[in-house]
Design a protein that fits this description.
3 helices; elongated; about 180 residues; mainly alpha; 2 domains
Length: about 180
């Protein structure tokens, strides 16, 4: 990781230097074009200006190199800080994963114990109390009465014979 970052930094530095060189060359070309244009009329004046421009350019390049070096050092410091933060985050991540694994293990144990206790209690309750099963009584008569009432919604007395049979069946089942 560090080698890649250093490589990226070096490439960035070289690109910055190349840009500075290109900028310098572009500026030199412009100066030469201006020289050719003005040379006939201002020969001596142009020579002095060119010398002054070269000195200024040299100072600008030196300033740019100093600024580039400062940025490179700053980037190195930030990279070290970032690496330290990354190590710290990895430590925290490992710690929390360990804590999570412990909690999951405890939860599984608690679930197992709780499930066993629940099953034991359910078995005890089942052993103590007999299950009561209920079955519908006179279900066939009940269905016939419902059908009769649906068919004779306005004439409910026509279903009275079935209702009487149903009541006898229910009373017999109660006994």
């Amino acid at each position: 990781v560090v080698n890649d970052e250093e490589l990226k930094k070096r490439i960035a530095e070289e690109l910055a230097l190349e840009r500075a060189r290109r900028d310098s060359e572009a500026q030199k070309r412009r100066l030469r074009q201006e020289q050719m244009y003005v040379r006939d009329e201002f020969g001596k004046l142009l020579e002095q200006e060119r010398i002054s421009s070269n000195e200024h350019l040299t100072r600008a390049i030196l300033r740019e190199r100093a600024a580039t070096e400062e940025e490179r050092q700053k980037a190195q410091r930030f990279a070290k800080q970032l690496e330290e933060k990354d190590r710290e985050l990895k430590k925290h991540d490992a710690y929390y994963k360990e804590q999570l694994a412990r909690l999951e293990e405890r939860s599984a144990q608690f679930y197992k114990v709780t499930t066993e206790q629940y099953q034991k209690a359910a078995d005890e309750v089942s052993a103590r109390f007999k299950r009561y099963e209920s079955h519908p009584i006179c279900a066939d008569l009940q269905d016939k009465i419902l059908q009769c009432y649906q068919q004779h919604a306005q004439e409910t007395l026509s279903c009275s014979a079935l209702a009487s049979q149903y009541l006898r069946c229910v009373n017999h089942a109660k006994q």
